[in-house]
Write a structure and sequence with these properties.
Layout lengths: L5 H4 L6 E3 L4 E3 L2 E3 L3 E3 L2 E3 L2 E3 L2 E4 L4 E3 L2 E3 L1 E4 L2 E3 L2 E9 L4 E3 L2 E8 L4 E3 L2 E3 L10 H7 L5
Parallel strand pairs: 1-4, 2-5, 3-6, 4-7, 5-8, 6-9, 7-10, 8-11, 9-12, 10-12, 11-13, 12-14, 13-15, 14-16
């Protein structure tokens, strides 16, 4: 994953938010921080941090720089740096990350592979767009 300028992509002004009650059907590509309190039925990819709130749901894969999960993810999770699984989260799928924090009460069903992210796992937004069936 190629990171954007940290001061730009992780700025609080560049937060994308899916509020509770929102449902997106399809893949979501973001170049800045993302908070999900609604539902995504598709893959989520970002070059920054993803926060999944207590009522947030992803049914699909998650690829990001950092993640903080309180909600539910069903799919593969690839996090380049730090993944935090909070007490009420439910993960059904495999995890690939450099570092992980699992709070008491978190549910994780799958396998976990830790260590430096290989070059094969590096993703840019252009790579995602090139492989997507979405027309821009």
């Amino acid at each position: 994953m190629i990171r954007k300028d940290k001061s730009n992509s992780e700025s609080p002004e560049r937060l994308n938010r899916l509020v509770e009650g929102t449902i997106i059907i399809g893949d979501l590509f973001v170049e800045s921080n993302l908070r999900i309190d609604g539902e995504v039925r598709g893959s989520v990819s970002t070059t920054s941090k993803v926060v999944i709130g207590e009522n947030g749901i992803i049914t699909g894969n998650l690829i990001c720089l950092n993640a903080d999960i309180e909600g539910k993810v069903t799919g593969t999770i690839k996090v380049e740096e730090m993944l935090a699984l909070r007490g009420k989260c439910v993960i059904n799928g495999d995890i690939y990350t450099n570092r992980i924090q699992i709070d008491e009460g978190a549910t994780f069903n799958g396998k976990c592979q830790m260590g430096a992210v290989s070059k094969a796992d590096h993703v840019t937004m252009q790579d995602i767009q090139d492989q997507s069936s979405v027309v821009y």
